[in-house]
From TrEMBL:
Gene that this sequence comes from: gcvPB
Glycine dehydrogenase C-terminal domain sequence ranges: 353-454
Protein name: Probable glycine dehydrogenase (decarboxylating) subunit 2
Annotated positions of the N6-(pyridoxal phosphate)lysine modification: 273
Main EC class the enzyme belongs to: oxidoreductase
Task of the protein: The glycine cleavage system catalyzes the degradation of glycine. The P protein binds the alpha-amino group of glycine through its pyridoxal phosphate cofactor; CO(2) is released and the remaining methylamine moiety is then transferred to the lipoamide cofactor of the H protein.
Amino acid sequence: MHNQDQALIFELSTPGRIGYSLPEMDVPELDLEGLLPEGYLRSEEPGLPEVSELDIMRHYTALSRRNHGVDSGFYPLGSCTMKYNPKINENVARFNGFAHVHPLQDESSVQGALELLYDLQEHLIEITGMDEVTLQPAAGAHGEWTGLMMIRAYHEANGDLKRTKVIVPDSAHGTNPASATVAGLETITVKSNENGLVDLDDLRRVVGEDTAALMLTNPNTLGLFEENIVEMAEIVHAAGGKLYYDGANLNAVLSKARPGDMGFDVVHLNLHKTFTGPHGGGGPGSGPVGVKADLIPFLPKPVITKRGEEFVFDYDRPQSIGRVKPYYGNFGINVRAYTYIRSMGPDGLKAVTEYAVLNANYMMRRLAEYYDLPFDKHCKHEFVLSGRRQKKLGVRTLDIAKRLLDFGYHPPTIYFPLNVEECIMIEPTETESKETLDSFVDIMIQIAKEAEENPEIVQEAPHTTVVGRMDEATAARKPILKYQKA
């Protein structure tokens, strides 16, 4: 480390220096002997660093400056919708009546919170074209699993126990087959055609009496709208299966098209993406699930309902798959999403889609001259490029991503979807200005030229970051998970 601001906190430790002052104890000291097993009692001091409050503040402030987020820079991570989160959402979520509410309070004392949740459900029902919504699931993949468990319960309630297969496109999110497996179901892959869309002939081949559902993202992970979605729904429904909508890409059709009108029976939403709840670093998230009428009996309980003028938790759901999360979802994220929907209004939500699609197509056309474009057609909110041209020059997509770090940009998603060689997946979102998009595109063009004229500078990137190019194989196989002094 080069200076004190960058030094690790252990290396700043000086005996006798403290950064806190606690008041004297006003209760008897607890005798731990006999209370805890002897093997769990500490026999030596923990060896914590001894530093001043100022050192602590500088240490963590320096670490925070190394983080990258939407508040500090452009974050074009494809399929993740890492867009700006309006601060009004944060302000509302911190209202005392929301921030200090306790999940074990009596329903009569939290009517305002329940009304907000109920109203949010009604908004999401309208936005998705579904008949009922649960806000319980804690994130997108959790919502996927919840939806599949309801589909499974539906088939079992009908005595249709042979329906154990979930059809998943080869361009699907990785969580789709994982969620199906955790739900106790098997997955079958359906291929994409030369246009990047689901191959209808292959779908007809794999669908059958054992089909529980087709999991689909529309627009798909290539950023392309499934033009034959109505016919796909007919194929799956004719075979007795259900159609599941992965709502990760709802940004592309928000207030323009509704999954329920496309023929979907179940949909999960990522409130922490489409509806601007902050996410990353493992949470928090919110993945509400909407269903059509025949699946309502299987919703997780309790369900928030309105009886007269009172909002209540309804536990009388004998066919429910049960509770899927302690208490009732990630309340703070739901508050943020509700604030966003109400502050944007119908016209604002339509503008979200319009600008997301405009920004993506603008960037795609500017970059098409310098990178391979696997599907030369109008995209939605995101698009994929291929680094095949650069790979022939010895520069991999990974190198391009590392080189972007030198210019202060978070790289886009790379090597996904798997059906595009050297894939580069870019989602600008609707919140970025033309100036930001142009700046990023200019750097991508510069990197493409460097691959031709000076490939070593790309191959050895990054050059300006605190941590340089790592040995990724060793890092994966022999990770260092505890502090080691240099």
